């Protein structure tokens, strides 16, 4: 009997943990959808997504406090502050303004970012909340003051020189708040800039090219002459490389848009909103949202819309009146049913429409039209990667006879092939060790990099083991020589990147101390063994400022996940990674492989491993 009670308690704990993970995943997806919506608003203010990921600081408190509505308590709930803390703030604050300030000071301790603040304002009102515009205005003023960083994360020499010329009370970190210095002519000019002028002013600092903005590229379709046929690809040069891939990606995306619209858009669907949210949909109580499903779509349409769309715009049946933009619930990804589950914001239009809905089992139903939005963020990243690929990377992809150093001149100075004597990284002498030496070799030429190494062979020949061993050897050499060594390992599948932890680096860390950091980025949070080597994308974004300064680090991510690294680790004209190991490279398209290459330093060692038969 006691054993059954223990088993039941363990099962309850397991289910509780699963629900918590599902809630966290839902929160992440809803926030991502919100950022997709707010992105265009940020662009119009001359901002980019990373600008929203600046931490709230003490000097920001007064302005932000003025943007929080009267119901600061509800705002605090949306910011996930415990009610006991909010009650304490209410008791300690003399008036609403002081309570808002104390709330924000509490959020500073929690290291909240501006995107969190904007998200909280959005949830406590809507995306048209004028306070959001004011916050974006303020972030723009922060941006045009922000000093550039060097590749080690420090303020550049030019900015240090500029600091000396500032008045004593305007040193970095002690600068007068922009909204306090009202008599400054230049500050007033900044405040009165038009959106177009803002974009011009920060154009050199904005990392996002127009090609990576869906609305902008839709206005610039390529001409047929810009796209090379398969038979003419031999004429591809560094000069026309980016234009060719812009054209190819644009046409591919256009086909996806047409296919999604033709296959999934509909004029006679049914929307059912639950009265009580079923347990399996994992309701997030922090948000005012409707939970329900669309019916009238075939299984094939639901599956395609789940994979290919970002969201769906719901319209009143028989008119173009917009009810809201709804988001896919993650339940759809693992369960194919005759309905598509959605989460919809509590918009006034949808609320009014549901009042007149037909009562059905478990809720109310209305007729709607649906227009699906293609998942253009994927193409945003690919366009971004192609456009931002450094010239030296493009020349590496399209080399000439004199692009690389002479192979006969490679040096193995400082290479000790026996740093790793662990069984999990043991290589055979005849082939694998030879490949390892090619990977760790360096060109003795100071002006020409070593060519990429192509490691190919069928499944089971040890390609992944060679890459893991090479990464370990290269990193140990870098640590011993006190040289910056940063390695990116990418693979096509999630299971493949976890192999580097569970079969190699994690195993080694249990046997010996690793004098460098290993980070695997995955949406699947690891709370068990090797959890210290795992980071979710949110955690990586949170800690990216520290990661940018790490001299010795190995980052492991899928090609898809590496699309998100650029905004955090990019240093203009310098790159970040000294070594890039691309596993399963035969399974990805070139623009996907370019994404990690766009983060390469000028002399980076590039290794491509794969099976030519895949």
Which descriptors would you attach to this protein?
24 helices; alpha/beta; 14 strands; Rossmann fold; 6-stranded antiparallel β-barrel; 44% helix; single chain; 614 residues; globular; 7-stranded parallel β-sheet
Your description of this structure?
By secondary structure, the protein is an alpha/beta fold. Helix 24 links the parallel strand 13 and strand 14 (600-610). It is built from 24 helices and 14 strands. The N and C termini lie far apart (55 Å). The longest helix is centred in the first third of the chain and has 43 residues, at 2-44. It has helices at 2-44, 61-65, 72-78, 83-92, 96-109, 114-124, 130-143, 157-164, 185-191, 195-201, 214-218, 238-264, 299-308, 331-334, 348-355, 376-388, 391-397, 432-440, 463-481, 494-511, 537-547, 559-562, 566-569, 590-597; strands at 266-274, 289-295, 309-316, 322-328, 339-345, 358-360, 363-374, 453-456, 485-491, 517-521, 534-535, 552-558, 577-582, 600-610. 44% of the residues lie in helices and 15% in strands. Helix 12 (238-264) packs antiparallel against helix 13 (299-308). The strands form two sheets. Strands 8-14-13-9-12-10-11 form a seven-stranded parallel beta sheet, sandwiched between helices. It folds into three domains: 45-197; 208-375, no CATH class; 389-610, 3-Layer(aba) Sandwich (Rossmann fold).
